[in-house]
Specification:
Number of domains of chain A: 1
Strand order of the largest sheet of chain A: 2-3-4-1-5-8-7-6
Largest sheet of chain A: 8 strands, mixed
Oligomer: homodimer
Order of helices and strands of chain A: EHEEEHEHEEE
CATH architecture of chain A: Roll
Largest interface: A-B, 46 and 46 residues
Strand content of chain A: 35-45%
Helix content of chain A: 10-25%
Chain lengths: 135, 135
């Protein structure tokens, strides 16, 4: 089941420039930059008190998020991520309601947590990631 | 200063239908439906453990969010909202860094909290609301 809001994710054309802008304008600092080969992105998080802002930069033209950046060259909100307590049971439960998950359910994020994406047509037009926490 | 992530906001064509879908598919329940005359929306929140999902339905063709729905007829992520501890000092501080705020800084949400919107070009292409909490 869904328990919380994990993060909001923004696609940016340049991760270092984005980090400088957030620090200069809002005193927000990013953490370590990591590479997610599967999603084709370089990324980092801004840790807030209760949740995070994720920044993603496409690592090449083949990256799935490169197309998003072509449509939104200055960047923009790409998805948000909800915490689930158990991916296997949540996946089974929501698929029984007809919800389509993208991928095979065995994806992991850079921190090794299980993730899955819900089809936007099954979440009010929003691209929503599910992320397993607490295991 | 920015302290936390308050909510993610989704524009939907029909608030009641959205509420039914979230409950049927994800067991997420909305709270009371309220009207924000200033923003021209009927809206409700889904309270999660650490933050909220906001749902907004334009209350008429003149609503500022009606255009968003014309571009995204099935709905979609409209903005996200960051908590600030004090609107007056935060507004002053970020405007000194050249950040453009939309509106006069005296807007309030349906709960009477002070809010302001940051120009998307000053937040990585994302429309970001600031919301004063804790006062």
């Amino acid at each position: 089941m869904i328990t919380g809001l994990s993060h909001v994710s923004i696609v940016v054309p340049n991760l270092e420039a984005a980090a400088r802008e957030l620090e200069a304008k809002y005193r927000l600092k990013i953490g370590a930059i990591k590479v997610n080969e599967e999603q084709g992105v370089r990324m980092a998080y801004v840790q807030l008190s209760n949740a995070r802002i994720e920044l993603m930069e496409p690592s090449g033209d083949e990256s799935p998020v490169a197309k998003f950046l072509q449509r939104n060259p200055h960047g923009g909100i790409h998805h948000f991520s909800l915490e689930v307590d158990d991916m296997v049971s949540t996946k089974g439960e929501i698929e029984r309601q007809g919800t389509r998950l993208l991928g095979d359910g065995n994806q992991k994020n850079v921190d090794g947590e299980k993730i899955a994406f819900v089809h936007p047509r099954d979440f009010l037009g929003a691209l929503v990631e599910l992320e397993e926490h607490g295991h």
